[in-house]
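Project outcomes to date are best conveyed with an example. Our students and postdoctoral researchers have been running inverse folding experiments weekly, and each run begins with a structure described purely in tokens. The record below, which covers 322 residues, was selected by the lab manager from last quarter's runs and is presented without edits.
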């Protein structure tokens, strides 16, 4: 391991008081070759700082580094992917065409007032998993290996997933339902729209009241059978979300808040089956339904839409902080 600047200064100090390389290495817990190298560096340059390096620049700021450190100290059993998602560090790759479409979209909709977005329903799907994994990485400092918060209880192996479909709007969360087993197709999506989405959203917007709908650019959402279904329901105006734009879909933040609440492991002794995973995901969703906190979250995300669009414009269509 590279010695710190304090260790490097100690090497010089111990040299000046007559200690041998072996004594210095033993006292500082570093190898003799490292001691010799830094003594020679100091003799040649009178400098103990690192030389400038070429290569890839840091991907995170010092503020983000601190946020990551706090996150793993708070939950040592978290995954790097979850840290990336919660700290909003992951960004999709954007091509020139993606950037151009994002900018065009932002310019088209940036003048829409917040009240426009209050009449938009957001749809999405997400797969939730049981927390049983074959191996768990633990983020910890040296000397804390057997602290209680750094130990994972033994449990059954295997990982079970369940895909769910849901919708949200400015006043809160709508319905969340199990997509079912097997491959998700356009035909399945149409059935969800017909049997779950439309009846539940009509409780808020009675027919023939029109409303806007926003969904991502999944191939399933763009299947011919899905397009035909929307043509048969002209009262639903589908907004054209540009590709690679999770920052323009407020549902991503709802999922993140929900997943955070559903991240606790299943109780010890419980059988991790698919139904248990579904119920664990439904619990935070139902907790938000009709509550001030859930309504405040969705309304706040809706009111942020103009700001998100302006951020895309300021970035020239590139990444934003959202």
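After processing, the design step wrote out the following sequence:
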């Amino acid at each position: 391991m590279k010695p710190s600047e304090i260790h490097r200064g100690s090497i010089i100090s111990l040299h000046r008081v007559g200690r041998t390389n072996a004594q210095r290495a033993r006292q500082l817990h570093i190898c003799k070759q490292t001691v010799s190298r830094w003594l020679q560096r100091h003799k040649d340059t009178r400098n103990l700082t690192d030389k400038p390096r070429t290569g890839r620049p840091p991907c995170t700021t010092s503020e983000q580094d601190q946020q990551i450190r706090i996150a793993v100290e708070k939950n040592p059993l978290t995954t790097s992917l979850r840290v990336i998602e919660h700290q909003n560090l992951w960004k999709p790759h954007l091509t020139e065409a993606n950037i151009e479409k994002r900018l065009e979209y932002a310019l088209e909709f940036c003048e829409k007032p917040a009240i426009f977005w209050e009449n938009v329903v957001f749809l999405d799907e997400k797969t939730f998993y049981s927390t049983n994994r074959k191996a768990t990485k633990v983020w910890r400092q040296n000397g804390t290996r057997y602290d209680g918060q750094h130990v994972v209880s033994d449990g059954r192996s295997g990982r079970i997933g369940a895909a769910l479909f849901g919708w949200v709007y400015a006043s809160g969360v709508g319905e969340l339902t199990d997509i079912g087993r097997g491959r998700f197709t356009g035909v399945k999506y149409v059935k969800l729209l017909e049997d779950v989405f439309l009846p539940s959203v009509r409780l808020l917007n009675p027919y023939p009241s029109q409303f806007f709908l926003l969904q991502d650019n999944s191939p399933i959402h763009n299947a011919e059978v899905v397009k035909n279904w929307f043509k048969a329901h002209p009262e639903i105006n589908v907004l054209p979300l540009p590709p690679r734009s999770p920052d323009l879909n407020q549902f991503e933040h709802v999922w993140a808040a929900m997943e955070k609440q559903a991240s606790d492991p299943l109780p010890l002794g419980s059988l991790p089956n698919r139904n248990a995973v579904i119920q664990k995901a439904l619990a935070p969703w139902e907790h938000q339904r009709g509550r001030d906190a859930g309504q405040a979250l969705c309304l706040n995300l809706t009111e942020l839409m103009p700001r998100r669009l302006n951020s895309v414009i300021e970035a020239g269509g590139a990444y934003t902080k959202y």
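The radius of gyration is 27 Å. The CA atoms of residues 6 and 145 lie 26 Å apart. The training component of this project remains on track.
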